[in-house]
Amino acid sequence: MNWLPRDGIVNRSILITLLAFLVAGISVVTYTSYATAQRATRTIDTRLNQLLDTVQSTVKIACFLKDEDLAREVSAGLLSNSEVLRVTIIADGATLADETRENLAGKSLPTGFQLNTLERKIHSPFTPGKIVGAVRLEPNPEVIAAQRSEDIWLAVQQLAWQLLLVSGAIVTALIVFVVRPISRMSQTLHKMDPLTGSRLFIPPGHENTEIGHLVSDVNQLSDHLVSALNEAREARLAAEAASDAKSHFLANMSHEIRTPLTAVQGFARIGARDSRDPASRETFVRILDAGTHLLGVINDILDFSKIEAGKLAIENRPYHLSEITAEAVSLMTDRAHEKGLELVHRPSPDLPEWVIGDAMRTRQILVNLLSNAIKFSRHGTVTLTILRMEDEIWFAIRDEGIGMTEEEISRLFRPFEQADSSTTRKYGGTGLGLSISMNLASLMGGTIQVVSTPWHGSTFTLQLPCKVASLPHMEEAEASPGFDLHGKLAGYHILAAEDIEANRLILADMLDEAGATYVFAENGRAALEQVVAAPHTFDVVLMDVQMPEMDGNEATRRIREVAPTLPIIGLTAHGMSQDRATSLAAGMKDHVTKPIDPKTLITSILCWATPGRAMAQSATPVILVETPPVPDEPAPSAGMVDWALLEKRFKGKRSFIQNIVRSTLTGHADAAEQLRELAAKRDFPAIAFLAHSLKGVFGNLAAQTSQDLAAAVDLAAKQGDESCMPLAEQLADHIPLLYAEFRQYLKPD
Amino acid sequence: MRAVIRLIFLITASLLGPSLNVARAEVVVVVDAASGIERLTQDQVINIYLGRHRKLPTGIAALPVDLPPLDKLRAEFYRKLVDKDLSEINAYWARLYFSGKTTPPMQANSTAEVLRHVTGKAGGIAYLDKSQIDPRMRIVYSFPQ
To answer: In chain B, which residues have their Cβ closer than 8 Å to the Cβ of A58?
Structure first.
């Protein structure tokens, strides 16, 4: 039915009707043509006979007298009848008259028709039985042709009228009885809300028609559909609720397990550090190891449920590739040696130094693969080879262990599955590690390939896309490992809100080691009260999230109202990413997961808080205006930066310091101009924002004078003080001098 | 008695006289005795009188003559010749009057004129009662009894 018009029943019906009429027209014309010709043939024969009867007496006389004049007169009379084509009158063998019609139009008869010439013997008018002549009349075919055209024209006209009436009737009926109800139905259906559905009304008079039945059926279907949809939605909501409940359960369980574990780990660490007796130290180390293992299992389960819920977020930040791989190897070296295995780290020399990706997850996969390799080997070597393969990095972990069959490999990456269930008894493990690793790899856009020969060993290859980082970011640099905590937080005054005493002790131990001073609050309300009492006392607040009286998120919101610039770092046993999002939304700068890794915590504090904030804040801007030491001393090499302190702070990593300096020069290149512009516009919030960030940057780079000046501008801008403008100008004048010193430092000596 | 029978006969005869006369009259076709024509057929007579062929067998043009219109013998002649009434014969000629070339036979005003016509002209031909025939004329056709 492709040839039918695409739109509308009416159009299609009209087309079909037209076609039917076309066929009817052709047959009617053909039939009429023949019927007319036949009828006309009969009619003309009768007519000619009648004509002859009329003139017979005269013809008799003409023949009797052989009178040509009379014969011609009769002939002319006969020819005045259109049916007659030719008249011939013969008497005694002589032709009296032979007249033929002139002015023929040239119309011809349809083929297959033969007209008969009428011939009649003429008797003497006086002697019966005596033949005196004959008359021959030829019929005129044009009459028949004309008759035929007339009849056909009439038939066609009739047909046209019928067509008009019938198609009009069909169209009207279709529109009234079919199209309009259907399109009304369609409109209603179109507007129908899929959740509540809606009932179609049966058009009046259609109660017993197909339309009515269709409407009832559609209504029934719609009811089914709506109830099915509602059921599906309820089912989905139930499933979501169940999934939420599972997530919550996991989060809570992990919290419940992590909280005591934090205490266990913390005390074990203190014990291991402080024990004089080697045996006790060994015990503490074992507790620490067992705790670390338990933490690993919990992390695995949590990771797996996050991956399953699609809530695991992969970071894309620059990290130092060789440090990550070296770390993974060093983490596993002891275990390998315990089993008498050799662990070889073999990075290819053409590897990029910095790559973009998720350092933690990459390390997690490597550790997992290495630990599997060690777990399933009894002798030989475990090798981690790192290669650059075009735009991928391949981490190949080869062992000489028990190996696997093809069939075992195929089941390898399924959750809770190990090559053999007896393996679980023999080697332990949750069976989640490879499944998690595979999922993490694919989340990072990579994959894990396995090649194995039973009893000869396996090679697991992690293939990740290689995105080379151009310049390391400061934060990443600070987070890089090999970081000595000792004295790192010197000068920081910290408020720590933590409700569990054990955790407070561990936190105190860490902060002590890092050289910070601190005050504890037992819940959110206490922390808030401390901040309200002395808003400028603290450089940073460490905030446990789950606390009685007032939780960490609520306390954070309240503190932000009082001291908007005071950085707050969350501490939580919750490992779920939505908790992190909630905390950040409440106004926390960062979020550190328990058990607290000292390095992570200190890195975070260094990143977000500036030491001596309290001092800078308490100094009144007036004093700074009265004693403007910097503009009067435009000596570029005057030593605005304490390079010695800086190099000490970063353990003499000159290249690293240069990176920070470089990123400051590029990141805040036009800071002076911006300051002047904003001062001219008296845009206090923008000045405060810029001055605040400059304060942090200068603090990081041990430019004490610059930092103080920026802090003064920040404070004045926040208080809306008029002194802000001259201070901002001062800072703007000061910045080029500082940058000059920076550039000096970058110059190769 | 014979006289009485004769009287009755005479009375009857006088009463029925005219009809008896007609019945007794016998129409014959005559020509001039000197014309040299012995006999004519009925067709020849028809042809001559109704205009189809007006030539005598000798080749002379035939000149037919009709008795006056009211003459009973004229009606009898046509009745016997072509079985037509005089009105029919008149209609025939009337039709030919305007379009035809043929003319009706000459119209005589009296029997005497007929006699003169038939005896005086070559080709003259007439019909008469047999009693009126004299030796100048010759009967060329008589109707079968």
So the answer is: 95
